[in-house]
Amino acid sequence: MKKNVSTINEFIRLKSFAIIGVSAKKKKFGNSILKEMLSRGFKLFPIHKSAMLIDGVPCYMDLQNLPEKPDGVILVIHPEETEKVVREIASAGIKHVWMQQGSESKTAIEYCAKHGIKAVSGECILMFLTRPGFPHNFHHWIWGLGK
C-alpha cells in the first residue's frame, strides 16, 4: 500500500479541526485525540450529539452548528457513519478529512476523491503529531519503514 505522505503532512499543518466521534469516556480514542491535540495548541471543535462539554471544551451537535469552518475534520466513527458525514463535509466546503483507523470505508474514500476532498485513511493521527508519546512514537517508526 502506497502511503500518501504529502497529504498526511498537509493535514497535520492545518490549524483547526472538527472531531466527529469525540467521547466523554476517557479511554475512548476520540477523547485521546482531543486531549493530545489540545495539548499541542490546535483549535478544536468537538462534535457530540448530546454532550455540551467534554473535559471543559464546548461541544457542538454537528458541522452546521460550528462557530466557524474548520480547516479539517477528524472522524472517529463507524464506517457507515463516515459515508454519511463525508457528504456533510463536502457540503460545508471543507477540503481535508482524516478517517481514523477503523472509520474508513471504500465508499467514503471514493466519495472524497470525486469531490476534491483530500482524505487520509487507515492511519492513526496520534502517530503524526510532534513528539507523540508511547506507543504512537513506536508505531510511527514502524510506519516509516514502509515508505
How does this model look, in words?
This protein has 147 residues and is an alpha/beta fold. The protein has a single domain, classed as NAD(P)-binding Rossmann-like Domain (Rossmann fold). 35% of the residues lie in helices and 20% in strands. The protein has 5 helices and 7 strands; from the N terminus they run αβαββββαβαβα. It has a 5-stranded parallel beta sheet, sandwiched between helices. The protein has a two-stranded antiparallel sheet with strand order 3-4. Helix 4 links the parallel strand 6 and strand 7. Helix 3 runs parallel beside helix 4. The longest helix is centred in the middle third of the chain and has 13 residues. The chain is globular, with a radius of gyration of 14 Å. About 8% of the residues have low confidence.
Morphology call: globular
The fraction of residues in strands falls at 15-25%
Q: Architecture in CATH? A: 3-Layer(aba) Sandwich
> Ends: how far apart?
9 Å
Brief descriptors of the model:
two-stranded antiparallel ribbon, single chain, 35% helix, 147 residues, alpha/beta, five-stranded parallel beta sheet, Rossmann fold
Task: Give me the secondary-structure topology.
Layout: H1 5-12, E1 16-20, H2 29-39, E2 43-47, E3 53-54, E4 57-58, E5 72-75, H3 79-91, E6 96-100, H4 106-114, E7 118-123, H5 136-145
